[in-house]
Hints:
Layout: H1 2-23, E1 30-34, H2 43-57, E2 61-65, H3 72-79, E3 87-92, H4 94-101, E4 113-128, H5 137-146, E5 152-155, H6 161-173, E6 178-181, H7 185-194, E7 199-203, H8 204-213, E8 217-221, E9 247-255, H9 260-274, H10 277-284, E10 289-293, H11 295-316
Parallel strand pairs: 1-2, 1-3, 5-6, 5-7
Antiparallel strand pairs: 3-9, 4-7, 4-8, 4-9, 4-10
Amino acid sequence: MLRTALASTLAAALVTVTSAFAQSYPNRPVRMVVPLSAGGFADVPARIIAPRLSEALGQSVFVENKPGAGATIGTDFVAKAKPDGYTLLFTGTPHVISPALYKNLPYDPLKDFASVMLVAAGPYVLVVNPQLPVKSVQELIALAKTQPGKIDYASSGNGSAQHLVSAMFASMAGIDLSHVPYKGSGPAMQDLISGQVKVSFAGIPNVMPSLRSGKLRALAVSTPKRSPDLPDVPTVAEAGVPGYDATLWLALLAPAGTPGEIVQKLYTEATRMLRESEVQKAIAATGVEVNIIGPQELSAFLQAEADKWGKVARESGATIN
């Protein structure tokens, strides 16, 4: 009885301390780690969000880039950080792809993180160089079937999201495309525009100038719904590959064990900030739209994404080590 009472007292005291700690959170600057390069698809939205979140929380929220090894260096840093809400991870689709690529990943992307919220989501665009004589997804599929393995597609690297999005398209369309991996999306885009490679899935901001100038042609967007930026461009599913869905998403995570009160506070304040029209317009300009889901829904979403992209990675044969 005494032992049970003591345990209950200690548990109650711990809850009280945790609750008090959460109520005073934050009382110092919060670091938001982006495990990808500065200027990339995750970095730009993070830098839009950080100053607004600073205002909402009453403490500085600063972005710190920790790129390298397919986003695993920065992600591992956050996984091993103290779960006190002062080190957060702002990441995207590659987060759930890594387990299928790295045999010795030093963290579990699902178990070692607390879900805070999904922030935004958007499409990739299936684009071709105009030298390729196709103007629709169906024409691309038909041409590829007459030239198996002879049409190249560019990606930002082996095992990258661009690689797997394209591999899933080829698999679901029943065609054989040849993968050409580059060291980053910049070099891939340069060779796509010059015609060294003919096909790629790319982010909207990366291709819009080339679409306007006619240097590239858009065939479809990868999401189930059309993009407001390209309303006349069909989805891949509409254009002839039913069920295709490859969404580029961005999420805010914290180390596993972060108190629920802190997670809820981050979710509440970030949600309030993300609903401001000025913030939504700024994020939309980066090629994604604000798309908020909470901690529990995000956990289920990440599991589903991990299952989907793990299957694609295994089928494509993509590995890093």
